[in-house]
Amino acid sequence: MHSDVADRRSVAISALQHYLFCPRQCALIHLEQVWQENFLTAHGRQLHERVDSGAPESRKGVRFERGVTVNAPKLGLHGQLDLLEHQTASRTYLPVEYKRGKPKATNVDKVQLCAQALCLEEMMATQVEVGALWYWQTRKRLEVEIDAALRTQTLALLEQIQNLFRQGRTPQPEYGKHCKACSLYELCQPKLMQGDRSSDYVSAMFNLDEK
After folding, report:
1. Is this entry keyworded Repressor (predicted)?
2. What is the CATH number of the domain that holds 33?
3. Domain count of the chain?
4. Are 126 and 93 in contact (CB under 8 A)?
């Protein structure tokens, strides 16, 4: 018999942000492998490509590594860091995530950063206490404490996504203002799908046949 770890599908760090934005979007991208760009996603991709393409360098006792691949099999997480700062004297690590917009009212960006820290901790057998978010729109860097509350939120979210992947079913749409910013809007058709009750009709028909 396989262990839970062996049976668990590894989750891409980006899936956490997709799930917080919309569970259906997360399933379409990571289960059904559907993707379509709009202006926002294209701009974000170009920003990350510029950041990730930089060569490693060292300045004043800090090693800067770009486009770092991370993998944490025990947690079931994998992904890529935009930038990893390694304080060589203290042997501490600080992940930096680049975002195209500005700081958000929710923890959506902080959760992604925390997931990166958790991967580093499993890989390097270390403790990551702080990360950073750099926002293109404001040109500001925001340091984020990887505290107990953020870790709990991130791990709970990871468990929800792993359950979604285990079930293998794409959730029905819940139309809202966020849909207008989604690059998958035309493929998802949230208004049309939300009004489609055909699945309920089929289920009811089969239930009647069983009686």
Report:
1. no
2. 3.90.320
3. 1
4. yes
Q: Which amino acid does the sequence have at 190?
A: P
Burial string for 143-166 (b: 16+ CB within 10 Å, else e) reads ebebeeebbebbbebbeebbebbe
Instruction: Please determine, for residue 96, whether its predicted confidence score (pLDDT) is greater than 50.
Output: yes
DSSP H/E element including 144: strand 140-145
Q: For residue 105, what are its two tokens?
A: 């009212």
Contact between 51 and 98 (Cβ < 8 Å): yes
pLDDT in tens, 162-209: 999 999 998 888 777 777 777 776 777 777 666 544 444 444 444 444
Residue type, 36: Q
The SS3 call for residue 86 is strand
Are the C-beta atoms of 143 and 130 separated by less than 8 Å?
A: yes
Question: What does DSSP say about strands 130-135 and 140-145: parallel, antiparallel, or unpaired?
Answer: antiparallel
- HSE, CB side, 13 Å, CA atoms: give it for residue 63: 10
Domain limits at 90? 11-169
Asked if residue 202 belongs to a domain, the reply is: no
